[in-house]
Design brief:
single chain, about 140 residues, mainly alpha, Recoverin, domain 1, two-stranded antiparallel sheet
Length: about 140
């Protein structure tokens, strides 16, 4: 019986670890890809071209289980990984606000059409000047 205790404890611990819903930020960035900053020219604004370039390169990495859509958990895990806004603009706690902006049809998943989409852009560019500044991507 004593010989079975350690393997059972290890197996149980591994099973519980597999149930975690939030990935450690250090591993999330690697799992979700690193594309540099959305503000690629580092001018303090996100222009539509930067928005679209990030979107094109990132979707397949954020869709961690490759089912063709990004779940709320996949989004949160990748958001926690950071790496796409400068440290001065990034706030880990804003993920749910961005989720709400991106999930245009409120179905609980992001399709390729929703992810960093034109509809999300319109909700983020609140002053409609064609770029997103620090006040808009930190508006909450």
């Amino acid at each position: 019986m004593k010989k079975l205790i350690v393997p059972l404890l290890l197996a149980g611990g591994a099973a519980l670890a597999g149930c975690a819903t939030v990935v450690d930020p250090a591993t999330a960035a690697n799992a979700c890809g690193t594309y540099g900053m959305v503000d690629s020219d580092n001018d303090g604004f996100v222009e539509a071209s930067e928005w679209n370039a990030y979107r094109a390169g990132a979707y397949s990495y954020w869709d961690a289980n490759a089912d063709g859509r990004i779940s709320r958990t996949e989004f949160q895990n990748c958001w926690y990984g950071g790496g796409f806004y400068s440290a001065s603009a990034y706030n880990r706690d804003y993920w749910s606000n961005y989720w709400s902006a991106f999930d245009a049809n409120n179905d609980g998943y992001l399709s390729n059409d929703e992810y960093w989409s034109g509809a999300a852009w319109a909700r983020m560019d609140r002053n409609n000047n064609g770029r997103i500044d620090a006040n808009e991507y930190r508006w909450w």
